[in-house]
Write a structure and sequence with these properties.
CATH topology of one domain: Rossmann fold
CATH architecture of one domain: 3-Layer(aba) Sandwich
Strand content: 5-15%
Radius of gyration: 21 Å
CATH superfamily of one domain: NAD(P)-binding Rossmann-like Domain
Order of helices and strands: EHEHEHEHEHEHEHEHHHEEEHHHHHH
CATH class of one domain: Alpha Beta
Shape: globular
Distance between the termini: 64 Å
Helix content: 40-55%
Bound molecules: NADPH dihydro-nicotinamide-adenine-dinucleotide phosphate
Largest sheet: 7 strands, parallel
Strand order of the largest sheet: 4-3-2-1-5-6-7
């Protein structure tokens, strides 16, 4: 595409960790990409800076008040950027005809509708927003197939798996000759902390990931290993594999990003430094290979790579996610919604770290699972799970104060 004309790109969640890394790669290739739209939620200063630098046609703040502030900031510095506000505008800029690539890097369920729109419009969807796929897997994969969208995962593990698949493999189809895939997990900051100490950990400790710099929600998800649970579901949809063929392996160095084991016993792995620009560049340039700016891997300096099975008692969220995947239907959407509420409550210091899995289990027990092929039903079950989760928080706090 870049040989003839630049690829039009919308970056959803441009102000976040993945968004910033994406724009770093884009900036290395002037003329290859044409930034059509950048989006944020409330971080007006960050989006203003990006707009002044990349001069997109559209800048969207999901929060309408923030959009007004952004418009005022850009009036003199980037007057040609059209500022839009609200959730509908996110959907609009994901589906514009001028857009070829959509980086889906909004965090959480808020990214679902724009992500779906990108698939429905047949875009190249660079999927970081795993929650969208977890919530709506059947619907989303159908939209990809029906509209010839190209789905490329940005999660380093899933991107690694894709790289270990045969050359002609495309996401959404059961790969031939694959015995299993192995998703690696660092184990997060509390891998070696005794279970008895988990109740007292703080949001700052949970967000201090040993290998990756990420947004706060995914950092907490990594600490509980819900992130790996969501990734198991994501892998199930992306690679059309049952749970028995998806293994989770702890690998504290985050150098080997995942592996595919074939029927003949061959195991193919993808390695690289823990730098998200590597999977982002892979997906932006695919099927070409171009420089990501990441440091070259020095295995002699790394020395040794360790692997171990996860301790499921230490990480109950992993099992809850596997349970939701086995249940099917809207169970993963319910799990995801309860988790989002739980993580925010933990970050706001309303509940303890160890209450996160309890809250999710509470919501899962009380919500009815429905067929997961209707968007309306998915959104209703998401809302029901959030209500259950908030009820739990209220009763938890009442118990704590009595
Ligand atoms: P961040 O928290 O750093 O960024 C989130 C982005 O989403 C920001 O641009 C934020 O805007 C925007 N946003 C937040 N809430 C809303 C909302 N309600 N409506 C619209 N936009 C919103 O997250 P990350 O970049 O770390 O993660 C983004 C996604 O990528 C997540 O799904 C995560 O699981 C996935 N991912 C991240 C990895 C990483 O290394 N960070 C690795 C693999 C996957 P604002 O800044 O204005 O708040």
């Amino acid at each position: 595409m870049h040989d003839s004309q630049p690829a039009g790109i919308t970056v959803l969640g441009a102000t976040g960790s993945i968004g910033v890394n994406t724009l770093d790669v884009v900036s290395r290739y002037p003329g290859r990409f044409n930034v059509i739209a950048l989006t944020g939620n409330t971080d007006v200063e960050a989006l203003a800076g990006q707009c002044e630098r990349f001069l997109p046609r559209y800048a969207v703040m999901a929060d309408p008040d923030a959009a007004e502030r952004l418009a005022a900031l850009l009036r003199n510095t980037a007057p040609d950027v059209q500022v839009l506000g609200g959730r509908d505008a996110l959907v609009e800029v994901a589906g514009l005809p001028a857009v070829d690539f959509v980086m889906a890097a909004i965090v959480g369920a808020a990214g679902l509708l724009p992500c779906l729109e990108a698939a429905r419009r047949g875009k190249r969807v660079l999927l970081a927003n795993k929650e969208a796929l977890v919530m709506s897997g059947a619907l989303f994969m159908q939209a990809v197939r029906d509209n010839d969208a190209v789905l490329l995962p940005i999660d380093s593990e899933h991107n690694a798996i894709l790289q270990c698949m045969p050359d002609n493999y495309t996401a959404g189809h059961a790969p031939r000759g694959v015995r299993k895939i192995m998703l690696t997990a660092s184990g997060g900051p509390f891998r070696t902390l005794p279970v008895s100490k988990l109740a007292g950990v703080t949001p700052a400790q949970a967000c201090a990931h040993p290998n990756w710099e990420m947004g706060r929600k995914i950092s907490v998800d990594s600490a509980t290993m819900m992130n790996k649970g969501l990734e198991v579901i994501e892998a199930g949809w992306l690679f059309d594999l049952p749970l028995e063929k998806i293994k989770v392996l702890i690998h504290p160095q985050s150098i080997l990003h995942s592996m595919v084991e074939y029927d003949d016993g061959s195991v193919i792995a993808q390695l690289g430094n823990p730098d998200m620009r590597i999977p982002i560049t892979h997906a932006l340039a695919w099927p070409e290979r171009i420089d990501s700016g990441a440091a070259q891997l020095d295995l002699a300096a790394v020395g040794s790579l360790q692997f171990e099975d996860p301790d499921r008692a230490h990480f109950p969220c992993l099992e809850l996610a596997c349970h939701a995947w086995r249940q099917g239907g809207t169970a993963p959407a319910i799990l995801n919604a309860a988790n989002e509420v739980a993580v925010q409550a933990f970050l706001d210091k309303q509940i303890a770290f160890t209450s996160i899995p309890r809250l999710i289990e509470h919501a899962m027990e009380r919500c009815t699972v429905h067929d997961g092929t209707s968007l309306q039903v998915i959104l209703e079950d998401d809302a029901a799970a959030r209500r259950q989760a908030r009820d739990y928080i209220d009763s938890d706090r009442m118990q704590a104060s009595s």
